[in-house]
């Protein structure tokens, strides 16, 4: 297809990237996984997105970093939880290791809009008939909209996340604000706890916050990051800390220090009726 003037295709290792370079920002989206890998607003020239220096870009395994699209389930599939040795159902669904197609690119007064679709929305482990679309707007801010449309003749339930890895100066010095209420702690057997008043990091963190804040802020020294969300039922906060960073082949041993995941998510299940579309949106500021 004909790309807009701000867009071009480049190759890195074995994957193709859609590069957006307009008056407001520079961004890169991997067509493998439909995954935003970089967003740098021109107003401050500061990278918002973290990508592992050890990430595999072989076009086969999921990319560590960026904004993975987790769909139509989040985390382990229910069958995988019951059968730990069953490898037929990849963690976080199957679209993040598919090739995505560029449907449209448009430049406008506020930036550039890119529309992508995966090779297929059908796969083992999901019985629904759906059309999945990702719309990325790159301007002063970066908006990601994940649209799930029910094209079948029965309603279905799905789970998903925009699993964003944010680039931070040092996670030891970071704090998160805007979260409240209860969360489920994956590092403690999914027990329920109250959100800390001073939300800082000193150990592995994997929390599903059962709330729907419109705005979460990452206090990152003099370089704060805002995460605006709609259409979600949860915010997931994750950092693997040192031991898991060392264990991951696609992450440097000290990689955990420069990243923090704040994920706009549906973890409790979203029902989509016949003919309806549900939109999960995250805006990065």
Helix content: under 10%
Number of β-strand runs: 21
The total domain count is 1
Q: Pairing-aware structural class of the strands and helices?
A: mainly beta
Strand order of the largest sheet: 6-7-8-9-21-18-17-12-15
Q: Which CATH first-tier class would you pick?
A: Mainly Beta
Total helices: the number is: 2
Which consecutive residue ranges, at least 5 long each, have pLDDT under 50? none
Mean pLDDT: 95
Distance between the termini: 30 Å
CATH topology, which one? Beta-galactosidase, Chain A, domain 5
Give the second-level CATH assignment, the architecture.
Distorted Sandwich
Description:
The chain starts with 6 loop residues before the first strand and ends with a strand. It is mainly beta. The chain has two helices and 21 strands. It has a nine-stranded antiparallel sheet with strand order 6-7-8-9-21-18-17-12-15, with no helix packed on it. It has a single domain (7-284), classed as Distorted Sandwich (Beta-galactosidase, Chain A, domain 5). The mean pLDDT is 95. The chain is globular and about 50 Å long. Its EC number is 5.1.3.15.
Write the layout of secondary structure elements.
Elements: E1 7-12, E2 15-21, E3 25-30, E4 35-41, E5 69-70, H1 78-82, E6 100-108, E7 111-118, E8 130-138, E9 142-150, E10 156-162, E11 165-167, E12 175-177, E13 182-185, E14 191-194, E15 199-200, E16 205-209, E17 215-219, E18 225-230, E19 234-239, H2 241-247, E20 259-272, E21 277-284
Antiparallel strand pairs: 1-2, 2-3, 3-4, 5-10, 6-7, 7-8, 8-9, 9-21, 10-20, 11-20, 12-15, 12-17, 13-14, 13-16, 16-19, 17-18, 18-21, 19-20
